[in-house]
Design brief:
This protein has 106 residues and is an alpha+beta fold. It contains two helices and five strands, in the order E-E-H-E-H-E-E. The chain has a five-stranded mixed β-sheet with strand order 2-1-5-3-4.
Protein backbone atom coordinates (compact mmCIF):
# COMPACT_ATOMS: atom_id res chain seq x y z
CA UNK A 1 0.00 0.00 0.00
CA UNK A 2 1.28 3.45 -0.93
CA UNK A 3 0.37 6.48 1.19
CA UNK A 4 0.46 10.21 0.52
CA UNK A 5 1.03 12.94 3.11
CA UNK A 6 -1.40 15.87 2.98
CA UNK A 7 -1.31 18.97 5.17
CA UNK A 8 -4.58 20.75 6.02
CA UNK A 9 -4.48 24.33 7.23
CA UNK A 10 -7.12 24.49 9.95
CA UNK A 11 -9.43 27.43 10.69
CA UNK A 12 -7.41 28.29 13.83
CA UNK A 13 -4.20 28.64 11.78
CA UNK A 14 -2.67 25.33 12.78
CA UNK A 15 -1.71 22.64 10.30
CA UNK A 16 -2.72 18.99 10.56
CA UNK A 17 -0.83 16.25 8.72
CA UNK A 18 -2.75 13.32 7.28
CA UNK A 19 -1.63 10.13 5.59
CA UNK A 20 -4.02 8.75 2.96
CA UNK A 21 -3.76 5.54 0.89
CA UNK A 22 -3.42 6.12 -2.84
CA UNK A 23 -4.24 2.59 -3.96
CA UNK A 24 -7.90 2.46 -2.94
CA UNK A 25 -9.30 4.70 -5.69
CA UNK A 26 -10.39 7.42 -3.26
CA UNK A 27 -10.69 11.07 -4.11
CA UNK A 28 -9.56 13.82 -1.75
CA UNK A 29 -13.12 14.60 -0.63
CA UNK A 30 -13.66 11.01 0.54
CA UNK A 31 -10.36 11.04 2.40
CA UNK A 32 -11.14 14.34 4.13
CA UNK A 33 -14.64 13.20 5.10
CA UNK A 34 -13.10 10.01 6.49
CA UNK A 35 -10.90 12.24 8.64
CA UNK A 36 -14.07 13.84 10.01
CA UNK A 37 -13.85 17.19 8.26
CA UNK A 38 -17.35 18.72 7.90
CA UNK A 39 -17.57 18.52 4.11
CA UNK A 40 -21.22 18.36 3.06
CA UNK A 41 -20.65 16.82 -0.39
CA UNK A 42 -24.28 17.50 -1.21
CA UNK A 43 -23.96 16.30 -4.82
CA UNK A 44 -22.07 13.14 -3.88
CA UNK A 45 -18.89 14.06 -5.72
CA UNK A 46 -20.35 15.01 -9.10
CA UNK A 47 -18.83 18.56 -9.21
CA UNK A 48 -22.32 20.08 -8.98
CA UNK A 49 -22.51 21.80 -5.59
CA UNK A 50 -19.15 23.25 -4.51
CA UNK A 51 -19.50 22.14 -0.87
CA UNK A 52 -16.12 20.35 -1.07
CA UNK A 53 -14.32 23.50 -2.26
CA UNK A 54 -10.65 23.74 -1.23
CA UNK A 55 -7.67 25.94 -1.94
CA UNK A 56 -4.68 23.89 -3.05
CA UNK A 57 -1.97 26.05 -1.50
CA UNK A 58 1.02 23.87 -2.38
CA UNK A 59 1.40 20.85 -4.60
CA UNK A 60 -0.13 19.58 -7.80
CA UNK A 61 -3.09 17.43 -8.75
CA UNK A 62 -4.83 16.10 -11.84
CA UNK A 63 -6.03 18.98 -14.05
CA UNK A 64 -9.58 20.26 -13.45
CA UNK A 65 -12.31 19.23 -15.88
CA UNK A 66 -14.49 21.77 -17.67
CA UNK A 67 -17.38 20.81 -15.34
CA UNK A 68 -15.23 21.54 -12.28
CA UNK A 69 -14.10 24.89 -13.69
CA UNK A 70 -17.72 25.81 -14.46
CA UNK A 71 -18.74 25.07 -10.85
CA UNK A 72 -15.76 26.97 -9.42
CA UNK A 73 -16.82 30.02 -11.49
CA UNK A 74 -20.11 30.12 -9.54
CA UNK A 75 -18.50 30.20 -6.07
CA UNK A 76 -18.14 33.57 -4.35
CA UNK A 77 -14.83 32.68 -2.68
CA UNK A 78 -13.21 30.97 -5.65
CA UNK A 79 -9.61 31.90 -6.38
CA UNK A 80 -6.61 30.95 -8.45
CA UNK A 81 -5.86 27.86 -6.33
CA UNK A 82 -9.48 26.72 -5.98
CA UNK A 83 -10.40 23.10 -6.61
CA UNK A 84 -13.25 20.76 -5.78
CA UNK A 85 -11.80 18.02 -3.58
CA UNK A 86 -14.21 15.48 -5.11
CA UNK A 87 -12.41 15.90 -8.42
CA UNK A 88 -8.87 15.33 -7.11
CA UNK A 89 -7.68 11.75 -7.22
CA UNK A 90 -5.37 10.91 -4.31
CA UNK A 91 -3.18 8.97 -6.72
CA UNK A 92 -2.63 12.19 -8.73
CA UNK A 93 -2.01 14.49 -5.76
CA UNK A 94 1.59 15.37 -5.02
CA UNK A 95 3.03 14.09 -1.76
CA UNK A 96 3.18 16.89 0.80
CA UNK A 97 0.32 18.89 -0.74
CA UNK A 98 -1.02 21.69 1.48
CA UNK A 99 -4.65 22.76 1.37
CA UNK A 100 -7.34 24.77 3.11
CA UNK A 101 -10.97 23.68 3.20
CA UNK A 102 -13.31 26.44 1.97
CA UNK A 103 -16.60 24.59 1.36
CA UNK A 104 -19.96 25.39 2.91
CA UNK A 105 -19.63 22.80 5.67
CA UNK A 106 -16.87 24.82 7.35
Amino acid sequence: MSDIQVFVEEADGSTTEHSFPTDMGLNLMEALKGSEYPILATCGGMALCGTCHIALLEGTANPPSDEELDMLDTLFNSGENSRLSCQIRLSALSNGARLQILGEGN
